[in-house]
Amino acid sequence: MKNERWAIFLAATTAWLATVAAVDEAPLSAADRRAVVEQLGQALEANYVYPDKAKTIAATLRRNLDAGDYDTAHDRPALARELTDDLIAASGDLHFAVGVDPEWVANYAAKKDPARAAALREQERREEARQNFGFSGLRYLDGNIAYVDLAHFADPELGYDAAAAAMRFIENGDAVIYDLRYNNGGHLEMAQLLASQLFPGDRDQELFDYDYSLDGRRVARGQWVLPALPAKRLTGKPVYILTGSTSFSAAEWFAYTLKKLDRATLVGERTAGGAHPVDRKPVGRDFFVQVPIGQIRDPVDGGDFEGQGVAPDHQLASVDALAFAHRLALADLAKADPAKRADADWFAPQLAPHAPLSAAALEAVTGRYEGRRVDLVDGKLRYTWRERLRLTLEPLGGDLLAIEGVRDFRFRIVRKGGKVAALERINRDGTTQIYARLD
Hints:
single chain, alpha+beta, 22 strands, elongated
């Protein structure tokens, strides 16, 4: 959407802007308040997703003004707060926010100047680059599971190279997990780009269908799987999406649509429930309004999740979602390919929830063993061999101990007569070796 670009964000993350003080701190006059209400009503009627409601809401604000409801709002932040409350009360839509930000208003107007618009765009690019365009983490989990931690959906015109690199990074995974638990939304076009990797490119597949208001005119469009991508497609590979109560807008749409299309399994908590896209519009020289401008519908039955959120397939606390999804991915891969059952069985202990060992239990493991020793340092077991090679041991539950950075073997604590008698090395190929305790 070249010059018609909008993003969808969590209203709560921008609500603080309603308290930003204007440069001009002169008290508001009655004429000032009336001008703001009139200009706000015009912005609503030109942009709000429901045109008929916009007229009703604007009329409500004018009646409140005439009734003296805003007479005590002597400064701009106070008026912005009262208008925000009244917009939400009149519409029932939590996306609404009125803010005070004359610098933003000036920049909005300056975008009509090509040179100024280019400078602002470059500033936006630099700010996005510092956040790596939303790609907070990329790695491979045990069992060849690709993992993408996505903090927000950046404008793909700015973040295309980062997205392309991420898509190429995960293309060799046997499955992929997208972590959207703390993603507050962003540009739906980035969601379209990333989702396109999960479908074949030789047939039409719609992802999102929506319409929105743009400065008084109605625009209808849909977004489809892109036919050309910068990376291999993950067609047929299992996909898991982690969700949380702060997953919002574009993050919710990414999860909701892929669930509707039977292309992803959702793990975590119900999302926030912000389905409407929003945009920010100037109101006079100092104020802006964040206004819902459109409706998005899924490509299956035309539904959405506004006010309800997206329900995960496996509901659990978001903090536990990654380990659960990792276990689920390994199990699903093992069902599809019995040769991968060994991976699922081997990694299951380190992914399963377990209680930490007590200080006494940790102390009981310390001592000298054949060719090695275990010490307790700052509450952690430190494993040393050849006198200078040291790694931390991590309890996995029961008598199993993982070794920091080691994936091919682990230890089991061997007890005799209630005392620790040896460490048994258990190799991934099933072979074992005993290291007897020497003290």
